[in-house]
Amino acid sequence: MSRTISRRSLRSPLSALALLALTAGAVTACTVPEAASEPGAPQSASPETGQPAGATRHMIDNGGHRVAFYVTQGTGPTIVLDSGGGEDASYWSDLVPELHEATGATVITYDRAGLGQSDVVPGPWQVESAVSDLESGLEQLGVTDDVTLVSHSQAGQIATYFAQDNPELISGAVLVDANLPPFFTDEQIERLVAFSQPQLDAAEEDPDDPQNRQLLSTAESFVATSTDFHQATWPDAVPATVVVSEKTPFDGSPEDVQRWKDAAASFVQAGPHRTLVDADGSSHDVAKDRPELVLEEIEDMVAAQR
After folding, report:
1. 211 near 15, Cβ under 8 Å?
2. What's the total number of domains in the chain?
3. Which of 40, 107, 112, 285 sits at 20 to 30 Å (Cα–Cα) from 134?
4. 3-class SS at 88?
5. Tell me, what's a Pfam family for it (predicted)?
Protein backbone atom coordinates (compact mmCIF):
# COMPACT_ATOMS: atom_id res chain seq x y z
CA MET A 1 0.00 0.00 0.00
CA SER A 2 1.42 3.39 -0.90
CA ARG A 3 2.37 5.46 2.15
CA THR A 4 2.41 8.73 0.18
CA ILE A 5 -1.36 9.06 -0.04
CA SER A 6 -2.69 11.27 2.74
CA ARG A 7 -4.88 9.88 5.49
CA ARG A 8 -7.41 12.67 5.20
CA SER A 9 -10.71 12.22 6.94
CA LEU A 10 -13.44 10.64 4.86
CA ARG A 11 -16.62 12.57 4.43
CA SER A 12 -18.61 9.46 5.28
CA PRO A 13 -17.57 6.28 7.09
CA LEU A 14 -16.73 3.18 5.10
CA SER A 15 -17.61 -0.13 6.70
CA ALA A 16 -15.08 -2.87 7.35
CA LEU A 17 -16.95 -4.95 4.79
CA ALA A 18 -16.17 -2.33 2.16
CA LEU A 19 -12.46 -2.50 2.85
CA LEU A 20 -12.39 -6.27 2.88
CA ALA A 21 -14.57 -6.70 -0.17
CA LEU A 22 -12.46 -4.42 -2.32
CA THR A 23 -9.00 -5.37 -1.12
CA ALA A 24 -8.61 -8.76 0.51
CA GLY A 25 -12.23 -9.70 0.90
CA ALA A 26 -13.71 -11.36 3.95
CA VAL A 27 -10.35 -12.37 5.34
CA THR A 28 -11.94 -14.35 8.13
CA ALA A 29 -12.71 -16.92 5.47
CA CYS A 30 -9.02 -17.60 4.80
CA THR A 31 -7.73 -21.04 5.72
CA VAL A 32 -4.29 -22.55 5.82
CA PRO A 33 -3.86 -24.62 2.65
CA GLU A 34 -3.93 -28.34 3.37
CA ALA A 35 -1.60 -30.94 1.92
CA ALA A 36 -2.49 -31.36 -1.73
CA SER A 37 -2.54 -34.29 -4.10
CA GLU A 38 -0.27 -34.70 -7.06
CA PRO A 39 -0.89 -32.06 -9.74
CA GLY A 40 -3.83 -32.92 -11.97
CA ALA A 41 -5.00 -35.88 -9.90
CA PRO A 42 -8.78 -35.82 -9.27
CA GLN A 43 -10.06 -36.61 -5.78
CA SER A 44 -13.45 -36.82 -4.16
CA ALA A 45 -14.10 -33.52 -2.44
CA SER A 46 -13.70 -33.79 1.31
CA PRO A 47 -16.68 -32.80 3.47
CA GLU A 48 -14.26 -30.78 5.58
CA THR A 49 -13.60 -28.44 2.67
CA GLY A 50 -17.25 -27.48 2.33
CA GLN A 51 -17.28 -28.49 -1.32
CA PRO A 52 -20.42 -29.95 -2.93
CA ALA A 53 -20.99 -33.70 -2.73
CA GLY A 54 -20.09 -35.30 -6.05
CA ALA A 55 -17.44 -32.72 -6.95
CA THR A 56 -13.92 -33.88 -7.69
CA ARG A 57 -10.83 -31.94 -6.77
CA HIS A 58 -8.08 -31.35 -9.33
CA MET A 59 -4.77 -29.81 -8.25
CA ILE A 60 -3.62 -27.72 -11.21
CA ASP A 61 0.03 -26.69 -11.48
CA ASN A 62 0.70 -23.21 -12.81
CA GLY A 63 4.05 -21.47 -12.59
CA GLY A 64 5.29 -23.61 -9.72
CA HIS A 65 2.26 -23.41 -7.45
CA ARG A 66 -0.89 -25.51 -7.28
CA VAL A 67 -4.48 -24.30 -7.48
CA ALA A 68 -7.44 -26.43 -6.36
CA PHE A 69 -10.31 -26.74 -8.84
CA TYR A 70 -13.55 -28.54 -7.97
CA VAL A 71 -15.56 -30.04 -10.83
CA THR A 72 -19.17 -31.21 -10.76
CA GLN A 73 -19.35 -32.96 -14.11
CA GLY A 74 -22.21 -32.32 -16.49
CA THR A 75 -22.78 -31.96 -20.22
CA GLY A 76 -22.85 -29.05 -22.64
CA PRO A 77 -21.82 -25.67 -21.24
CA THR A 78 -19.54 -24.98 -18.29
CA ILE A 79 -20.36 -22.63 -15.42
CA VAL A 80 -17.34 -21.23 -13.56
CA LEU A 81 -17.99 -19.62 -10.18
CA ASP A 82 -15.32 -17.21 -8.88
CA SER A 83 -15.66 -15.99 -5.29
CA GLY A 84 -14.84 -12.58 -3.87
CA GLY A 85 -11.64 -11.55 -2.14
CA GLY A 86 -10.67 -13.72 0.81
CA GLU A 87 -13.36 -16.32 0.05
CA ASP A 88 -12.54 -19.82 -1.18
CA ALA A 89 -14.61 -22.07 -3.42
CA SER A 90 -16.87 -23.14 -0.55
CA TYR A 91 -18.62 -19.77 -0.86
CA TRP A 92 -20.65 -21.30 -3.70
CA SER A 93 -21.23 -24.76 -2.20
CA ASP A 94 -24.98 -24.28 -1.67
CA LEU A 95 -25.55 -23.06 -5.24
CA VAL A 96 -23.57 -25.70 -7.10
CA PRO A 97 -26.02 -28.62 -6.72
CA GLU A 98 -28.97 -26.44 -7.69
CA LEU A 99 -27.16 -25.04 -10.71
CA HIS A 100 -26.11 -28.49 -11.84
CA GLU A 101 -29.63 -29.87 -11.46
CA ALA A 102 -31.27 -26.92 -13.21
CA THR A 103 -28.89 -26.66 -16.18
CA GLY A 104 -27.19 -30.04 -16.50
CA ALA A 105 -23.97 -28.10 -17.06
CA THR A 106 -20.54 -28.82 -15.68
CA VAL A 107 -20.01 -26.53 -12.68
CA ILE A 108 -16.50 -25.51 -11.63
CA THR A 109 -15.37 -23.66 -8.53
CA TYR A 110 -11.81 -23.04 -7.41
CA ASP A 111 -9.65 -21.70 -4.58
CA ARG A 112 -7.50 -18.78 -5.62
CA ALA A 113 -3.84 -18.86 -4.57
CA GLY A 114 -3.41 -18.61 -0.82
CA LEU A 115 -6.97 -19.72 -0.08
CA GLY A 116 -8.60 -23.05 0.65
CA GLN A 117 -6.57 -25.95 -0.71
CA SER A 118 -4.41 -23.84 -3.03
CA ASP A 119 -0.76 -22.98 -2.46
CA VAL A 120 0.34 -19.64 -1.06
CA VAL A 121 2.13 -17.38 -3.55
CA PRO A 122 4.44 -14.89 -1.77
CA GLY A 123 4.50 -11.20 -2.60
CA PRO A 124 1.82 -8.68 -3.57
CA TRP A 125 -1.41 -9.88 -5.13
CA GLN A 126 -1.25 -9.63 -8.92
CA VAL A 127 -4.41 -9.79 -11.00
CA GLU A 128 -2.33 -11.10 -13.93
CA SER A 129 -1.35 -14.13 -11.86
CA ALA A 130 -4.95 -14.72 -10.81
CA VAL A 131 -6.07 -14.60 -14.45
CA SER A 132 -3.27 -16.97 -15.40
CA ASP A 133 -4.35 -19.45 -12.71
CA LEU A 134 -7.91 -19.47 -14.04
CA GLU A 135 -6.78 -19.79 -17.65
CA SER A 136 -4.38 -22.61 -16.84
CA GLY A 137 -6.95 -24.46 -14.77
CA LEU A 138 -9.61 -24.41 -17.47
CA GLU A 139 -7.08 -25.39 -20.14
CA GLN A 140 -5.81 -28.36 -18.14
CA LEU A 141 -9.38 -29.41 -17.36
CA GLY A 142 -10.14 -29.44 -21.09
CA VAL A 143 -12.58 -26.52 -21.07
CA THR A 144 -12.24 -24.82 -24.44
CA ASP A 145 -15.51 -22.93 -25.03
CA ASP A 146 -19.06 -22.14 -23.88
CA VAL A 147 -18.17 -20.87 -20.41
CA THR A 148 -20.56 -18.82 -18.32
CA LEU A 149 -18.39 -16.95 -15.83
CA VAL A 150 -19.95 -15.93 -12.51
CA SER A 151 -17.85 -13.48 -10.48
CA HIS A 152 -18.43 -11.88 -7.09
CA SER A 153 -16.79 -8.75 -5.68
CA GLN A 154 -12.99 -8.73 -6.23
CA ALA A 155 -13.39 -11.47 -8.84
CA GLY A 156 -14.87 -8.82 -11.12
CA GLN A 157 -11.32 -7.65 -11.77
CA ILE A 158 -10.24 -11.15 -12.74
CA ALA A 159 -13.32 -11.54 -14.94
CA THR A 160 -12.62 -8.31 -16.82
CA TYR A 161 -9.07 -9.21 -17.80
CA PHE A 162 -9.99 -12.84 -18.41
CA ALA A 163 -12.75 -11.74 -20.78
CA GLN A 164 -10.38 -9.38 -22.59
CA ASP A 165 -7.89 -12.20 -23.17
CA ASN A 166 -10.41 -14.97 -23.89
CA PRO A 167 -13.56 -13.54 -25.50
CA GLU A 168 -13.99 -16.68 -27.59
CA LEU A 169 -14.04 -18.85 -24.46
CA ILE A 170 -16.79 -16.99 -22.60
CA SER A 171 -20.36 -17.18 -23.83
CA GLY A 172 -21.58 -14.86 -21.09
CA ALA A 173 -20.90 -13.52 -17.60
CA VAL A 174 -22.93 -12.80 -14.47
CA LEU A 175 -21.15 -10.17 -12.36
CA VAL A 176 -22.54 -10.36 -8.82
CA ASP A 177 -21.96 -7.06 -6.99
CA ALA A 178 -18.57 -7.22 -8.66
CA ASN A 179 -15.72 -4.74 -8.87
CA LEU A 180 -16.15 -2.81 -12.12
CA PRO A 181 -13.71 -0.37 -13.77
CA PRO A 182 -15.81 2.83 -13.54
CA PHE A 183 -15.84 2.70 -9.73
CA PHE A 184 -12.08 2.97 -9.23
CA THR A 185 -11.47 6.67 -9.77
CA ASP A 186 -8.43 8.29 -8.17
CA GLU A 187 -10.68 9.88 -5.55
CA GLN A 188 -12.34 6.59 -4.64
CA ILE A 189 -9.01 4.78 -4.42
CA GLU A 190 -7.75 7.48 -2.06
CA ARG A 191 -10.82 7.10 0.13
CA LEU A 192 -10.30 3.36 0.41
CA VAL A 193 -6.58 3.69 1.13
CA ALA A 194 -7.20 6.22 3.89
CA PHE A 195 -9.82 4.05 5.52
CA SER A 196 -7.75 0.88 5.33
CA GLN A 197 -4.65 2.13 7.12
CA PRO A 198 -5.63 1.13 10.70
CA GLN A 199 -6.46 -2.41 9.57
CA LEU A 200 -3.17 -2.68 7.69
CA ASP A 201 -1.20 -1.40 10.67
CA ALA A 202 -2.81 -4.06 12.85
CA ALA A 203 -2.18 -6.80 10.29
CA GLU A 204 1.49 -5.89 10.05
CA GLU A 205 1.93 -6.84 13.71
CA ASP A 206 1.35 -10.49 12.78
CA PRO A 207 2.10 -10.85 9.05
CA ASP A 208 2.42 -14.65 9.18
CA ASP A 209 -1.22 -15.09 10.15
CA PRO A 210 -3.00 -16.39 7.02
CA GLN A 211 -5.77 -13.81 7.29
CA ASN A 212 -3.34 -10.94 7.70
CA ARG A 213 -1.12 -12.28 4.92
CA GLN A 214 -4.02 -12.20 2.47
CA LEU A 215 -4.97 -8.67 3.41
CA LEU A 216 -1.42 -7.33 3.25
CA SER A 217 -0.58 -8.98 -0.08
CA THR A 218 -3.63 -7.48 -1.75
CA ALA A 219 -3.19 -4.08 -0.12
CA GLU A 220 0.43 -3.90 -1.24
CA SER A 221 -0.60 -3.67 -4.88
CA PHE A 222 -4.03 -2.09 -4.37
CA VAL A 223 -3.29 1.42 -5.64
CA ALA A 224 -1.49 0.36 -8.82
CA THR A 225 -3.90 -2.50 -9.53
CA SER A 226 -6.99 -0.37 -9.00
CA THR A 227 -5.61 2.55 -11.05
CA ASP A 228 -4.92 0.23 -13.99
CA PHE A 229 -8.29 -1.46 -13.59
CA HIS A 230 -10.09 1.89 -13.97
CA GLN A 231 -8.82 1.96 -17.57
CA ALA A 232 -9.89 -1.61 -18.39
CA THR A 233 -12.77 -2.32 -20.77
CA TRP A 234 -15.16 -5.22 -21.11
CA PRO A 235 -15.24 -6.80 -24.59
CA ASP A 236 -18.40 -5.97 -26.51
CA ALA A 237 -18.66 -9.55 -27.78
CA VAL A 238 -19.24 -10.99 -24.28
CA PRO A 239 -22.76 -10.54 -22.84
CA ALA A 240 -22.85 -9.55 -19.18
CA THR A 241 -25.53 -9.38 -16.52
CA VAL A 242 -24.60 -7.06 -13.65
CA VAL A 243 -26.36 -7.83 -10.37
CA VAL A 244 -26.14 -4.95 -7.88
CA SER A 245 -27.06 -5.32 -4.22
CA GLU A 246 -29.20 -2.78 -2.42
CA LYS A 247 -26.72 -2.18 0.40
CA THR A 248 -23.51 -2.68 -1.65
CA PRO A 249 -20.18 -3.13 0.19
CA PHE A 250 -20.70 0.36 1.63
CA ASP A 251 -23.76 -0.01 3.84
CA GLY A 252 -23.83 3.05 6.10
CA SER A 253 -22.15 5.37 3.61
CA PRO A 254 -24.83 6.74 1.23
CA GLU A 255 -22.27 8.56 -0.91
CA ASP A 256 -20.25 5.43 -1.58
CA VAL A 257 -23.37 3.30 -2.05
CA GLN A 258 -24.43 5.68 -4.81
CA ARG A 259 -20.97 5.66 -6.39
CA TRP A 260 -21.03 1.85 -6.49
CA LYS A 261 -24.46 1.81 -8.11
CA ASP A 262 -23.56 4.58 -10.55
CA ALA A 263 -20.47 2.63 -11.61
CA ALA A 264 -22.61 -0.42 -12.35
CA ALA A 265 -25.05 1.65 -14.40
CA SER A 266 -22.17 3.29 -16.28
CA PHE A 267 -20.64 -0.11 -17.04
CA VAL A 268 -23.92 -1.44 -18.44
CA GLN A 269 -24.49 1.65 -20.58
CA ALA A 270 -20.97 1.54 -22.01
CA GLY A 271 -21.48 -1.49 -24.23
CA PRO A 272 -23.97 -3.81 -25.92
CA HIS A 273 -25.46 -7.03 -24.52
CA ARG A 274 -25.35 -5.82 -20.92
CA THR A 275 -28.18 -5.94 -18.39
CA LEU A 276 -28.50 -4.35 -14.95
CA VAL A 277 -30.38 -6.27 -12.24
CA ASP A 278 -31.16 -4.83 -8.81
CA ALA A 279 -30.95 -7.28 -5.90
CA ASP A 280 -33.41 -5.52 -3.63
CA GLY A 281 -32.98 -6.19 0.07
CA SER A 282 -29.55 -7.74 -0.34
CA SER A 283 -26.22 -7.01 1.28
CA HIS A 284 -22.98 -7.38 -0.68
CA ASP A 285 -23.36 -11.16 -0.22
CA VAL A 286 -26.10 -11.47 -2.82
CA ALA A 287 -25.53 -15.22 -3.26
CA LYS A 288 -26.32 -15.70 0.43
CA ASP A 289 -29.17 -13.19 0.74
CA ARG A 290 -30.85 -13.70 -2.64
CA PRO A 291 -29.69 -17.12 -3.92
CA GLU A 292 -32.83 -17.57 -5.99
CA LEU A 293 -32.06 -14.38 -7.91
CA VAL A 294 -28.45 -15.36 -8.59
CA LEU A 295 -29.56 -18.82 -9.74
CA GLU A 296 -32.18 -17.32 -12.05
CA GLU A 297 -29.71 -14.93 -13.67
CA ILE A 298 -27.12 -17.67 -14.22
CA GLU A 299 -29.73 -20.03 -15.65
CA ASP A 300 -31.02 -17.29 -17.96
CA MET A 301 -27.49 -16.52 -19.19
CA VAL A 302 -26.79 -20.20 -19.89
CA ALA A 303 -30.13 -20.65 -21.68
CA ALA A 304 -29.63 -17.52 -23.79
CA GLN A 305 -26.39 -18.90 -25.25
CA ARG A 306 -27.85 -22.28 -26.27
Report:
1. no
2. 1
3. 285
4. coil
5. Abhydrolase_1
How far, in Å, CA of 110 to CA of 132, rounded? Answer: 13
Contact, 36 vs 59, CB < 8 A? yes
Closest to 238 in 3D by CA, of 151, 154, 153: 151
Q: What are the φ and ψ backbone dihedral angles of 120, each rounded to 5 degrees? A: -75, 135
291-306 pLDDT tens trace: 999 999 999 999 997 7
- Each residue's pLDDT tens digit, 20-44: 455 434 332 222 223 333 434 444 3
Element (H, E) at 43: strand 42-44
Instruction: Give CA–CA dist 271/40, Å, rounded.
Output: 38
* 83: in domain: yes
In a domain, 229, yes or no: yes
Supply the pTM of this predicted model. Answer: 0.86
Position 245 in a domain:
yes
Nearest-angstrom CA–CA distance, 239 and 174 = 9
Full residue range of the structural domain in which residue 144 is found: 16-304
